[in-house]
Description:
Layout: E1 5-8, E2 11-12, H1 18-28, E3 33-35, E4 38-41, E5 43-44, H2 46-58, E6 63-66, E7 73-74, H3 75-85, E8 93-95, E9 100-103, H4 121-129
Parallel strand pairs: 1-6, 2-5, 3-8, 4-9
Antiparallel strand pairs: 4-7
Amino acid sequence: MSQVAMWRKPHPVFVTLPRMKYLLNSLINNEEIVLYPKLLYNANTDFLIAKQLYYIIENKLKGIFHLGAEDVVNHKGFYNELILGLGFNNARIQENFEEEGYFALLSERHDEFPGRLRLMNKSVISYLIN
């Protein structure tokens, strides 16, 4: 492992990702959105993942790198905040309590990236809204 840099990618949330397009299309067409209150995860943006990978390569870093937000959030809470931020106050939400789990990657190392390459899940939501 001393010669390798391995990155672990979290739940990617890109503006152009089919999942985001599906969400927007569903909201515009007043279709039901399924959210998972028992699912915890963290996310990242395409823009920051690219910057983090560039940093790893440029600095010839080795080891395992977790490219996710520094916090873990509830799926329902994340998407509720995103949906409201997009201006959809009356979205049709269905909660699926059957699915549960932990889809997050948190690092035990706190020095993986400098501050400009770190983010919280609220930053991901802001990125997608703006």
